[in-house]
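re: ur question from earlier - yeah i can do the single chain one, its not a big deal. heres the input i used so u can compare w yours
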Amino acid sequence: MTSRWRDLGVALGVLTGLGALTVVPAIVSAGLPTEGPPLTRPVDVGHGVRIDPPPGARLDVTDSRPGAGEVVLRTADGLRIRLTAVAYQGDPEPFTAHARHRLARDELLRPAGRPEPLRAAGLRGEWGPLTGEQPACYAVLTGPEVAVTALVTPVDGCAELPAPVRAALTGLRSDPS
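and the output i got, formated as tokens:
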């Protein structure tokens, strides 16, 4: 009879331990900030790409890896700007088509009009409106050694971008090392 109580005690101890491993990290995570302080300097996206954030923008610390190719900014007016930079050499058209396809597949967004040409320092490409659960604006830019994808949500197309966000995207810089 004592071995049954001992086995029950061990089983309850294991279940309590597993419950703690599930609940405690969630409680700690809920108490951590998701955004950093307002950004006042250019942010290194990665692969030599930098962005001058819009005034009041904050780095989303849960989804960003500055310098490693993934940065998410949250603007003061509620927009989310996700920038991804990858090393890339080659014809820009296949990368652009792949980026559009990836946005459609991963974000469930589809083009909502014709893209327009976009130029930034050392980068060339296009931007255009997307429709889906949340309307968006995308930009795909390539340079000699890098490719950048930007997604701004929620916004009804690139024509509706606030001036500071538009300036940040058109002001992207590529300084390959």
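The helical segments are 2-31, 92-107, 163-170. not sure if urs matches, ping me
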